[in-house]
User: What shape does this take?
Amino acid sequence: MLGTFGDFGSFSFYFSHHITSGEGGMITCKTEEDYNLLRCLRAHGWTRHLTNRQIVEELYPDIDSRFLFVNIGYNLRPLEVQGAMLSVQIDKLSQFNACRRDNLKRIREIISRNERFHRLMSLMEASPGVDPAWFGVGVLLHRPYAHQRLEFLKYLEENGIENRPIISGNFIRQPCIAAFCEREHPENYPGAEVIHKRGFFIGIHQIALDQTVIEKLVEIMLAFPFQPQHVILVTGSHRMLGKYIQNIVLKQTLEEETVSSDLSLTENKIKTKNSEWIFLTQDDGDLRQIEDVTNIFKRFQPTRILHCAAYIASNEDMCNKPVDFWLDNVKLNNNILQIAFEFQLWSGPIKVISILSTNIFLENTQHLKAESYIFAQKSLQQLIRWYRQQHNCSFISILSDNVFGVYEDINNDTDQFVNTLIMKIINQQENDPSTSVVLTNTCTTECEILFAHDYAKIIIWAMENYDEDETLLVSGQTISILELVQLICQHANFVGGFTFDNNAEYNRLLYDTNSIARLNPPIQMTSLSTGIQHTVEWYRNKKCKESII
Assistant: This one.
């Protein structure tokens, strides 16, 4: 293809290239004007070898025509011996190219049979309709192994396998370009960044390689002790579930004695020996905007995404603006899945774990104030299934009912059932402890309650251990709402009693959780009493701080 389109084509005749003159190269062009310019630049800016030399010299009669320089130029003229070398090799070029193509074909066939290869790296592919004579095997390590690239290349050298960067990597990172392009940022060129940080060449010889040599090459490449280091994005990190995930990761990190020298902590970033956690905030961008999501992926190049974010507000606002909230949530969810899918082309597999609400299982949602949000959640669940079906993406969904805990803005306008009960009882205990609290729109049937800390642990576990088509349903402890209220009153030290609005119907489902029971994650669940106590104490402390302020 080179030399068949555009204004110029550049060929290198370096010693290891397709044909060689030891050094130097060749430039092709379309017009005689460009041809003369190139010849001039090649020889000091001289006019000596121009096809229109006489015309140019007549323009400068006061300068000796033997030493007329009309341009800035270089001393790049090839020697006759270089031309002789090339003329001999031109006759062998077809044979050289055939050997290179065959060598790559056999390397690709052998390495592709090994499942370990597909987990670790990929080979560069030619564009459709193009059959290049490959100069080298272009290899890209998958994103989790980028941190071992230099160590891996040193290992290859020690085992007799020479390697090179893929050309210059991301040229924006080269000092010669950075000096003139100060406003350019390397992360804005994600393809070049991938080549720079995860790519390398292994040369393909122009003579036929013995099959045993190819087998040995593949054996050495795949014997390296790769250890993944995932980059995990957490959306919605400012909300209850995101905060619990952050605390769990931080606690686990501080308990690992072996990672003290590698540990890096900031407010929204935790980096350990084997992982890097990024807890996204609004400062990182608006997930409803496709450009912002794209830039987030360019910046962090994640391999895992815990998608906990949702665009919600008070029940009144969501009821008054159902179109706005449905569209905002659909945009947010679609952007995450779409960009994750697109970035897999150069990052390798990206796993997305989306957190759903059990309201999606309700047959009648018309009376619910968050109906628009529920339909957006249903859309997300279906989109995940379609991505798995059509593109074989590792996208999964998880849900649980009645999750409660701290870090949440507890008020009457939210749909956090248990947290709202805690708020009502504590407020009654502080304002009028002798009067019973009236629990409106509440019934006494059974429900399933899950402490958010336990839910966060299950989500982290599922990130590496669950990859099935069906949504993972997580259940908590089954308890009657009457018993739940009694438990909250006990920990809140409220003795005023309570009454129910018995006209209410509990519109949540006790759903099948066989999948989580079958998987049996090794997680020690918090007792419901402990979780309630923890949440009651947090809410009281929060109210105390707010009253002081």
